[in-house]
Specification:
Blueprint: H1 3-34, H2 43-72, H3 81-113, H4 118-121, H5 124-144, H6 165-200, H7 210-213, H8 218-247, H9 255-283, H10 285-295, H11 297-305, H12 319-323
Helix pairs in contact: 1-2, 1-9, 1-10, 2-3, 2-9, 3-5, 3-6, 3-8, 6-8, 8-9, 9-10, 10-11
Length: about 325
């Protein structure tokens, strides 16, 4: 396959992923806005993650497509505005996503470890301030990279394939590994506390009576914590191929093969933005119900009212039966 053939194939993959990401995140955002039961404090983190996921679909992927064809014509240099915009938006999405996951992990830890004080400690206003700080820090880190012009300090070059290993390790430790370690430690503690609470059911012990008096649906909070773990694992799974590709030596590959693998690992990474809404919808009953209602309103109406053979409900009382 020639250079133009590889470019066309990569472009098609990126366009499909862009449309898929836009559609899924938009529908999920609409579902949260329509359903009052989804306007909880913890779902503010979901909104933050959705907003972050719009960055690849609206900025990173279109710029990547432009890079593909500009590189194909050999007119893209390291100092171009296109290159800087692409790298800055990529770093912004990465930092905003992972810090949002750290924030929701702290939210889950407080909800499970101190359920009686959860609503007092994490109000809507406090959570909004935390997420505002997350985005301010992400913007600061992303745009700060533009000013590192020295050869020893610059985190990026326009071509990721020739990224310095030292700079990559620095970026990986600060943006990826440290937050991930922190999140896994938090969720390990959450799992221990959840198991402790499960063992306490049916046991008369003053140490566990506090869970019976808290104004929270504790099992629902535990289920949501597991969904957060799944999203974090999905993040790790989608980013791992890109991280591995950046640290291996691709000098043995042909130019077209290197370009193909470069874009393929990027497609896998950007897939997190499209798959994360599906994970949230699949494992959250309220989100799944609202998603179903938006995408298939007629089927939802038939199911909710027991209309048709598939959704037949013999317990439904008709207006005539009510009158008699």
């Amino acid at each position: 396959m020639g250079r133009h053939g590889v470019s066309e194939l990569n472009t098609v993959l990126l366009v499909v992923l862009m449309l898929f990401t836009l559609f899924g995140n938009f529908v999920l955002l609409l579902a949260i806005w329509r359903n009052k039961r989804l306007r909880k404090v913890t779902h503010l983190h979901s909104i933050s993650l959705i907003v972050a996921n719009f960055i690849p679909a609206t900025t990173i992927i279109p710029l990547r497509i432009a890079r593909i064809w500009n590189e194909n014509e050999e007119v893209l240099s390291e100092e171009t505005t296109l290159c800087e915009a692409y790298l800055t938006s990529t770093l912004l999405w990465c930092v905003a996503s992972i810090l949002t996951l750290v924030s929701v992990s702290f939210d889950r830890y407080i909800a499970i470890s101190k359920p009686g004080k959860y609503r007092a400690k994490l109000t809507h206003n406090k959570t909004l301030l935390i997420l505002l700080a997350v985005w301010c820090f992400a913007i600061f880190v992303a745009f700060m990279s533009l000013y590192h012009t020295g050869s020893g300090l610059k985190l990026f070059t326009c071509n990721f394939n020739i990224l310095r290993k030292e700079s990559y390790v620095y970026l990986l430790l600060t943006v990826e590994v440290i937050p991930l370690i922190l999140m896994f430690v938090l969720h390990f503690q959450i799992t221990k506390l959840s198991a402790k609470h499960a063992q306490s059911i049916g046991i008369v012990d003053s140490r566990f009576t506090e869970y019976n008096r808290v104004p929270l649906d504790f099992p629902a909070e535990v289920r949501w914590s597991r969904v957060v773990i799944l999203v974090i694992l999905l993040y790790v799974l989608m980013w791992s191929p890109r991280c591995i590709y950046l640290i291996i030596d691709d000098s043995a590959m042909t130019v077209n093969s290197a370009r193909a693998f470069d874009v393929l690992t990027e497609v896998i990474t950007y897939s997190f933005a499209g798959l994360a809404p599906l994970v949230l919808v699949h494992f959250n009953n309220d989100m799944r119900e609202e998603f179903f209602r938006i995408l298939m309103p007629f089927q939802w109406f038939k199911r909710s009212h027991g209309v048709g053979k598939k959704y037949n409900n013999t317990n439904i009382v008709t207006p005539f039966e009510m009158m008699t």
